[in-house]
Amino acid sequence: MPCLCGKLAAKQYDKITPSEAAILRRAWVEAPELRKLERNLQLNQGVEGLVATYNSTYLTVIQQGGKRPQNSSIGRAIYYALAEQIERNSAIDATKSKFEDALHTENIEKHTLYENRRIGNIWCGIIEDFSSVANRCGGLLLAPRQFEGLMCLLKYPSRWERASNEERVAALNRLVAGTAIVNNALLARPVVEEAVRAVRPKAVHQRSAAIRPRDVIRRTMHTQPIRPHPCITNSIQAMRVADHSVGSGCDDSVIVLILLSFLSPSHSVPVDLLVRGASTRKRWTSEGEPDDTDAIDAGLTPALCELLSNTSRLQNALNNAPAVLERISSDYYMINESTVRHFHLLLPHDCLDFWKCQALIVTYRAIPWKYLEPRIPDPRTYLVHLEHTLAAVDHRFELLSAHMRRDLTLSLIEAVRFRKKNWKQFAFRQAVSCADGVGDGAARVGVAYSMALIKRLLDRTVVDITGELGQIRERLQIRGIALDNRTHASFGHATIQLALNDMQMEKLTDAEQRLLNFNQLGEVQSSMEAIVAVRRAMLLGRIYRWQGKFSTSIDQAQTALTTTQQYTSLHFEEDLSELCCDLADSLRDDGQFISAEQLLRDEIKRYNPGSIPSSLVLSLAEVLFAQGRYEEVKQRCSEVSKSQWVSNIEKLRLSIIQAKTSHMLHHMKDAQSFWLQALKAVENFERTNGHTTRIIILSMSKTLRPIEDSDYLKESLQQLQELERIEEPGSVNYWIAGMKDWEIFMKPKPHSRF
Question: Where are the ARM repeats (predicted)?
Fold first, then answer.
């Protein structure tokens, strides 16, 4: 019986025993230096020649605006489509005119069409073989048509047509094992689709244009069993052999247990996270419109996708899982840390990265994108697991496909919006790391404007990203990539952040001009551009209110509100409370108290009693104060005081409303205390003007007694005079709603001691 070395030399892989296979796996893991040795595979000359035709630089050409890499490849694509058609039609004459148009020629002779069909049949076979090799090696289950981008990646297609079938299959195996040809072929597929658009039936093209592997896979899921990825099969087998108490469960239960072990062991896992992560999610197309994308597109294996997205099957797997899976409630499960460590010791070492990536895909895809999907009640239950899976990958984003890296980068940019400071910083750092090497314009712009957001909110610094944005535009132009609606809208979001920077510095005129200069790309506004238009109108309305132009401010806010109502397929609920507060504040300062109150009460009705945003309650309290309904104001302020989530601006506004109410009720001690709280709260905001601070000090001085508090009164009046001296024209005068009227009320009257 030959030894292991003899079997390897003779390529008798089918004769390798399980123990010998274990030796090979262990050597692969424990001796990575072996993988770096030069490989001297004795390929015959024909196979070597085919392998040499692969040129990944063609993909770069494709990504630079979708240009055709060479005429011969595109011609083959048309012949390939011709062969597909002839298989369905007995007579070649039926498609003659279509192919004359596609080849830009007239009166093609029949023998030429038959020759083209012969070449097309060869490419059908090549694509079939490539599909078989790619699916087998990658654990995929994609239709051959998904791999037709291969034709754009080979320099000399005629060399493949002359080769024998054995040489072609050997070359394909070599390329799939040693290069990124599978991923590149999937990325290049749209070029072939465009080339054969005129010759394929419209129904076929329209079906394939939606994307992508998922349609074929979904159909297959209902007609034949999904073939699990080798790491899934090997992991199940390892668990059954090493731990009978765990491995005795059904395959579904073992798979779910393994996957859960790669999530955070310190936190329970919501079942919804698993379902959402494996189900269809909304993403933006290059046209700036919503589209459905499947988890398989992101890299989740079909077997996991089918299991996790099927709620009844997933629940059965959880219900029948061994006792190591702790059920916290009907919707939450947990595995303790010692069990996690035990599992990871049992799993094949070369499968750990696979499971880390699969867990990351599930967790990041569960996070909803703003405007595309409804918000989730408690994002923290998802974010802890996303943070854990990102930490497990440890910045090794080269493990991920280019498509997944782009999607993950954009998802992290989306997730920066969630509240926790530490999370914002972590998500941003991960997005920067993941985006390294991602050429997508929208992703690069997203990283840039996220940096501006992070610096402004967390570091209280203003970062000018105009230089970075200019470099991104220049790189796109150099590569010949036209600006699509998605990237243009991303630049719009960056403009929003730059305007917010200007507003932070009280450069209201600069912010206004910046916003007015941004317009939609084409004649028809895309959905993504509509979102930018809403944000722009909101900020313009806020700027005009700060300047005291209340009527113009109301017009802008109402324009934004109308736009949100027109785009019913988008979800603006995360912006609506902010928008309604802005509009109500402008109405209040314009003296339209009843309209402001009705607007706020209608918006509050959309929320459950325990989830009403404090900003809405405070805006309502201010409107009630303007109407002299002080007891109702106190009740509303009490509600906000008990809330767990109160931002700095809400704390400031709460103190001001409480101080004004106490003052009007002649509770001067309470008023003084609240004004002191307001003065402390305003220190969290680096305003260059200090107009609001001046009103607070003026109000506080009214609560002081001339004799007992004479020193403090004198100090306050001196500070007031200094703030009046440094006040700059054109800056923010009406930052907090209601302060305009309160300032008039507080101004010294004739014969006043002030």
Answer: 299-331
Q: CA–CA separation, 74 vs 68, rounded Å? A: 7
Question: How far is 409 from 95, CA to CA, in rounded Å?
Answer: 45
* Predicted confidence (pLDDT) per residue in 609-626, tens digit: 888 999 999 999 999 999
Q: How far is CA 557 from CA 539, 582, 586, 594, in A?
A: 9, 7, 9, 17
Give yes or no for a contact between 421 and 415, defined as CB atoms under 8 angstroms apart: no
- Which span out of 43-52, 136-145, 692-701 was modeled with the highest average pLDDT? 692-701
Measured in whole angstroms, how far is the alpha carbon of residue 162 from the centre of its chain? 46
- Does an H or E element contain 60, and which? helix 57-63
CA–CA separation, 405 and 298 (whole Å): 9
- pLDDT band of residue 206 (cuts 50, 70, 90) is very low
Count of CB atoms situated within 10 Å of the CB of 493: 21
Residue 727 tokens read as: 């006040």
CA separation for the pair 143, 524 (Å, rounded): 36
DSSP letter string, 387-433: HHHHHHHTT-GGGS-HHHHHHHHHHHHHHTTSS-HHHHHHHHHHHHH
Residues near 683 by beta carbon (within 8 Å), at least 6 away in sequence: none
The amino acid at 64: Q
- For the ranges 20-34, 455-469, 543-557, the maximum mean pLDDT occurs at 543-557
Report in angstroms the alpha-carbon separations of 642 from 602, 635, 636, 654. 23, 11, 10, 12
Q: Sheet containing 326-329: which strands, arranged edge to edge?
A: 269-270, 332-334, 326-329
Q: Cα–Cα distance between 95 and 198 in angstroms, integer?
A: 11
- In the chain, the amino acid numbered 359 is A
CB 313 within 8 A of CB 252: yes
Confirm whether pTM is higher than 0.85: no
Q: Which fold has domain 572-646?
A: 1.25.40
The Cα–Cα gap between 35 and 693 comes to 67
Convert the pLDDT of each residue in 141-198 to its tens digit: 677 888 888 888 888 888 888 888 778 888 998 888 878 888 888 888 888 887 777 6
Query: DSSP for 89-102?
Result: -S-GGGGHHHHHHH
- In our burial notation (b when 16+ CB lie closer than 10 A, e otherwise), range 252-289 reads bbbbbbbbbbbbbbebbbbbbbbbbbbbbbbbbbeebe
Report the distance separating Cα 537 and Cα 518, nearest Å. Answer: 11
CA distance 549 to 724: 22
- Residues 6+ positions from 523 with CB-CB distance below 8 Å: none
Sign of the alpha-carbon dihedral angle for 502, 507, 512, 518:
negative
Q: Which residues pair with 329 in a beta bridge?
A: 332
What tokens does 333 get? Answer: 């499960």
From CA 253, how far away is CA 247, in angstroms rounded? 9
pLDDT tens digits along 486-509: 999 999 999 999 999 999 888 999
